[in-house]
Amino acid sequence: MTMRERDAQLERVMRAGPVIPVLTIEDAAQAVPLARALVEGGLPAIEITLRTQPALAAIEAVARDVPGALVGAGTVLNREQLRDAQRAGATFAVSPGATPALLEAADVAGMSLLPGVATASEAMVAQEAGYKLLKFFPAEAAGGVAFLKSVYGPLPDLRFCPTGGIDAEKAKDYLALPNVLCVGGSWVVPNTALKAGDYATIMKLAREACAAAGR
After folding, report:
1. Predicted local distance difference test score (pLDDT) of residue 80
2. Which fold, 3-210?
3. Phi then psi for 72, rounded to 5 degrees?
4. What would the mean pLDDT of 105-119 be, rounded to a whole number?
5. What residue ranges do the domains of the chain occupy?
6. Rounded to two decimals, what is the model's pTM?
7. How many CB atoms within 10 Å of residue 19?
8. Do 102 and 76 form a contact (C-beta atoms < 8 A)?
9. Dihedral angle over CA of 58, 64, 70, 71, nearest 10
10. N or C terminus: which one in the chain shows less Cβ crowding within 10 Å?
11. Which of 60, 135, 140, 170 is catalytic?
């Protein structure tokens, strides 16, 4: 897959819904019903972080059993994790940062990668490497809405998915920016609802997130 094709695929992911839910799965059996609830709620792009042992099994299950889901792997730190995510069926990968080795690994694998940046310099380095779609992380700690407003002038071609410390109210301010395509967040999947298997509440929160964004 060429860089242009990877960008097109990643942009489809980022435009699929206003929020990419960031999920930490402790039980792989939760993954399919959870993903179905999110897709039904209007949030088909889903990031499952590689922070738990069941994460790859969860990605594989969603990729196989949930039509319409665009499942990605989050917290990808190195080429081995990128390879494992791709083999599990991930449509895209997300990283908290962007090392030269990881960017090179994504190029070699032909994998759509959303690399993380926290400064203008990091964004410029990613842009020089051919990346125009970036994760802004940790969003609230790194300057939030004000930062993204500031970099739009000098870096108008870049588009962001801010993630980190964002809730339903803060999401509205980010989504109003011209250089933001979506936000990443976990508020649409509260731990209490997930542990209880309350997928109806999760679907409701997903629909509310779409309605708040006018989508």
Report:
1. 97
2. TIM Barrel (3.20.20)
3. -125, 165
4. 96
5. 3-210
6. 0.96
7. 31
8. yes
9. 20
10. N
11. 135
Of 86, 52, 91, the closest CA to residue 71 belongs to 91
Residue 195 annotated in active site? no
The closest alpha carbon to 201, from 215, 213, 211, 191, belongs to 191
Cβ neighbors of 186 (< 8 A, separation 6 or more) are: 21, 22, 23, 24
Per-residue pLDDT reduced to its tens digit, 27-78? 999 999 999 999 999 999 999 999 999 999 999 999 999 999 999 999 999 9
Considering the candidates 11, 40, 47, 204, report the single residue annotated as catalytic: 47
Residue 87 has pLDDT above 90, yes or no: yes
148 vs 126: CA distance, rounded Å: 16
How far is 120 from 189, CA to CA, in rounded Å? 31
Q: Is 135 a catalytic residue?
A: yes
